[in-house]
Design a protein that fits this description.
4 domains, Beta-Lactamase, Helix Hairpins, alpha+beta, disordered C terminus, elongated
Length: 567
């Protein structure tokens, strides 16, 4: 985000602050003014009610001679804005009123013997301020009216109509709001003019820098982003796209996607098909680019439209899920291997005892026969086959009981040279050559020497069996980084018959073999031993061209097995 964009953001924020402050000021001033007006009007109404009450109190002893006389005084003092004047007893029962309908009604007197000021809601008159004052007459005069009315402990009740006061209050509120709204509108207009002038000044630079900013985001995002116009011409191609497709941006930009991208389905370019059918896609594909190997990718598209919602192109988001799929396959393989290991161990134990009995019985019978007896040949065949089967059982048990690596330092290059020399002596009849490219930087290597030898020998045996008549086996070692830690990379490559693609996912499964005499345990043991060292084994193969095994072994045997070399 550039400085112009920040300046613009600050301006918007400042504008919002000013508007909020002005709005709060409006509410505050209105509230203050209305509250002052309300208090003033209520005091005025209260004073009016008390004046009437005191006037009646003052006139009472002089003029009240009868009930009619008292009623006439009440009517005389009832003026505009006064809804009613009542006289009630100490229990609030009205016995005399200027309004006939209120007689014999009961009112509430919260504080007896004191002046009460109440705001009430009258069903007929609306809002009313009720002033209740104790009504005392001079007791020195004997009045006949005492015999008729209970005036001794009575109250005067004056009902002041508040509606006209609240009408004045509403007029005051409207006047304040209108005045403030005009001021606020003028302030906002000034802010708007300043803001538009500022926006006109910085908009070009802001758009330019935002374009650069967006471009940087596309370059750093971990998905391939490709945009294409309606004619299928590539308009944008980010860094991850270059990595997935193995092509530089300059090679594909402004070119037909059908010609430069290997994304076809049924002979048609996937993106052009999407534009023609006007239907977005969300699917997984296998991408095979020369020199990059096979990749699994997920593609999802979204259409670009103009103001009239007409499609002008599309944006494709492409994710490389090869590693994720490989991880899932490895997890599934590990589960399968664990289950097969337990099953194999159980079966192997059950087979060994009958084999021992068969071999012992065959030997016993062979010894009882004469040397010339032809049946001895058959018995020897039985013994040989039992021994072969027993060896297979031993391999199964060894596979099921792989031991934890016993780490110690040794020279990996020397170990490889020894094993290769051993095989060269054994395969003189074959026209197979070994080519070694061993890194001189690899000195002391921490691992289980016997298990590493077994890994190496099983892979070489597999390579020799894959070469029908003559060929070569390349062996390389180098230092590398595996899972952000120092490791050794071991590569064994042959130019034999290769492995069919449909078998690549099964070659590490126990008992899977395409050879007539193979047990199918060699590569399974390799996989288990490498995994025990917290490493990884990969295979690349093309039928008829050969196979390459790539093994990563942590320098110190992986997490949980590391030892201090003292270096």
């Amino acid at each position: 985000m550039n400085k112009y964009f920040l300046f613009r953001e600050k301006s918007i924020f400042l504008t919002l602050i000013i508007v909020i402050l002005l709005t709060l000021l409006l509410f505050f001033l209105t509230g203050q003014e209305v509250e002052r007006e309300r208090s003033s009007l209520l005091e005025l109404a209260q004073s009016e009610g008390l004046n009437i009450a005191f006037s009646i109190q003052t006139l009472g002893p002089r003029f009240v001679l009868s009930e009619n006389g008292l009623k006439e005084i009440l009517l005389l003092l009832k003026k505009e804005g006064v809804n009613y004047i009542d006289i009630c007893d100490e229990e609030g029962m009205i016995f005399l009123s200027t309004e006939e309908g209120r007689i014999k009604k009961r009112i509430i007197i919260p504080h007896e013997g004191k002046i009460n000021i109440l705001n009430i809601q009258d069903k007929n008159s609306g809002r009313v301020l009720q002033v209740i004052k104790p009504f005392y007459l001079d007791g020195s005069r004997l009045l006949d009216i005492w015999k008729i009315l209970p005036i001794r402990n009575s109250y005067l009740v004056v009902g002041i109509d508040l509606e006209r006061y609240y009408e004045r209050l509403n007029q005051t509120r409207k006047r304040i709001i209108i005045n403030y709204s005009i001021i606020m509108a003028l302030v906002l207009l000034g802010i708007y003019v300043i803001y538009k002038l500022q926006e006109t000044y910085i908009i070009k630079k802001t758009l330019s820098e935002m374009k650069d900013y967006t471009s940087k985001i596309l370059e750093t995002i971990d998905d391939a982003i490709i945009s294409i116009d309606r004619q299928g011409i590539i308009k944008s191609f980010n860094r991850k796209s270059e990595e997935i497709f193995g092509k530089k941006k300059e090679e594909v930009i402004h070119k037909d996607c059908e010609k430069v991208l290997n994304l076809n389905e049924g002979g048609d370019c996937l993106f052009k098909k999407c534009l023609q059918e006007e239907k977005n896609i969300n699917q997984e594909l296998v991408l095979e680019e020369e020199g990059l190997g096979k990749k699994f990718i997920e593609i999802s598209t979204s259409f670009l439209t103009d103001e009239s919602e007409k499609i002008t192109g599309l944006v494709a988001v492409i994710r490389d899920v090869t590693e994720w799929k490989n991880l899932n396959e490895e997890i599934a393989r590990n589960k399968r291997l664990a289950a097969l290991g337990k099953l194999s161990a159980g079966i192997a134990h059950e087979i060994r005892n009958p084999l021992s009995s068969i071999r012992g019985l065959a030997q016993f019978i062979s010894h009882t026969l004469s040397k010339e007896d032809e049946r001895r040949v058959d018995l020897n065949t039985i013994i040989q086959e039992v021994d072969r089967l027993n060896n297979l059982v031993i391999q199964v048990l060894d596979y099921a009981k792989v031991k934890k690596p016993n780490l110690s330092p040794f020279s990996l290059n020397e170990l490889i040279s020894e094993v290769v020399e051993l095989f060269q002596k054994q395969i003189n009849k074959y026209k197979i050559k070994f080519h070694l490219q061993l890194s001189p930087h690899i000195s002391s290597f921490w691992a289980d020497k016997d298990q590493v030898r077994q890994i190496f020998m099983n892979i070489i045996i597999n390579a020799i069996q894959a070469i029908p008549e003559e060929g070569e086996i390349k062996i390389e070692t180098e230092e590398t980084i595996y899972k952000e830690k120092p490791a050794i990379k071991l590569v064994v490559e042959d130019n034999g018959i290769g492995i069919p693609e449909q078998n690549l996912q099964q070659i590490f499964d126990p008992f899977f073999s395409t050879k007539e005499q193979g047990s199918g345990l060699g590569l399974s043991i390799v996989y288990t031993l490498v995994e025990g060292h917290q490493g990884e084994v990969k295979v690349e193969s093309k039928e008829g061209k050969g196979t390459k095994f790539i093994i990563f072994l942590p320098q110190k045997g992986g997490k949980g097995f590391a030892k201090d070399t003292g270096n």
